[in-house]
Amino acid sequence: MLVAALAVAAGAAAQSPRPPVALVVIGGTVITENAQRQIFSPGAVAISGEDIVAVDRPEVIASRYRAAATIDARDQIVLPGLINTHTHAPMVMYRGLADDLALMEWLEKYIFPAEAKTVSPAMVRTGTRLAVLEMIESGTTTYTDMYYFEEEIARVTRDAGLRGVLGQTIIQFPVADAKTPADGLARAERFLQEFKADRLIVPAVAPHALYTNDETTLRAAAALARRYQAPLIIHLAETEDEVKIAREQHQATPTGYLESIGFWGPRTLAAHGVWVDDDDIEILKRRGVGVSHNPESNMKLASGTAPVRKYLAAGVALGLGTDGAASNNDLDMFEAMRQASFLAKHATHDPTILPAAQALALATIGGAKALGMDALVGSLEAGKRADLITVSVAASRQVPLYDPVSHLVYVTRGDDVQNTIVNGRVLMRNRRVRTLDRLAVIAAANQLAPTVRAAVK
Ligand SMILES: [Zn+2]
Fold this sequence. Notes:
The protein is an alpha/beta fold. The protein has helices at residues 2-11, 58-64, 103-118, 121-137, 150-160, 181-195, 215-227, 240-250, 254-260, 278-286, 295-300, 308-314, 333-348, 356-370, 404-410, 438-455; strands spanning 20-26, 29-31, 39-40, 44-48, 51-56, 66-72, 76-80, 82-87, 140-147, 163-170, 201-207, 232-236, 268-272, 290-293, 317-320, 388-392, 417-422, 425-429, 432-433. The longest helix is centred in the last third of the chain and has 18 residues, at 438-455. It starts with a helix and ends with a helix. The structure holds zinc ion.
């Protein structure tokens, strides 16, 4: 309604005073990621309430709107906030705890035992605060999560002002927040109810993987998500072992097996999708499944190389993710873009694959499409939620600047982000996070660290 009112008022600007807007981000190179991939250099973004009301040249915005507040983005790049389509936020507490291992050994000897001894509502809150701080500081404005006590993650995320598609984990064996899959499903349903109308949190159902859930549980998780029209998130075909398990137990690929039990549908998101064949890709495309590509985690765990070229050629909705910080080991989406581009080139012996513009699209509008949220976020356009970041290009490694898109993908780091705005709210201004007490968040994580360390000794 406000958007419509402002548009009408803007049309009559010559006769009437300029309508007020809450915030204008002005100056700098504005990379919109709209369908035309429009870039304003310089540009400006007008924000009112939760929404972007206009994106244009600075003089046009200044002549049309009266800004209650401005952010001067001269000598910066302004772009849509980055979208991390796969992580496990509280796992920042396991960062660096066990490296240089294969996925199954890493999970079974270190991560699952550490989780069994340390996951609690308090641990999840402490870890999520640290993760959310890192994400705000490195320019992520929407993230997708799969973990335990997801309602705690949701409350911390909402309080910090970040947008989240947050999935309550469902897993066959007893875990900290559920003794049985039925408990997990009941917990997931309460979670869906509690957050279904939230402005920032999209609650989701997250069966961990096909090798950690039986068919009854997978079917029940899918049915629950459909009943609430909620996203359904799963790890898919991350390793070759998973394909072996699916072939032995179900005589199918992981993707094919999940297709055979009616798991896939719109608003399903598959994390990794490394070991897929052409038939699998066709299924994922036909079912409208979003795929989260996690190049850094896949390389570190030597899981394999997702067929990014084939996904893109098939028109699968592809986004980028960091995965949890235990397998990356950070949540910096700039690095995810860079590594996605390098890995695709390295794997195909073709340096023209996944150029900078395409890597940037995967981390913004591509991630939004993978999550089915592209009507709301992923680009800077009037009517979308005001989720944007500004990036300094003042570091020595960023000089000279010929092509801002090249710089964002090939030299920018999360630390270069200056301002992070989500849903119209400034979460970080000039690198000062306003919604979390940075020192207290870090102190709390450090205080918990010895307990985590002791759990795997
Ligand atoms: Zn994962």
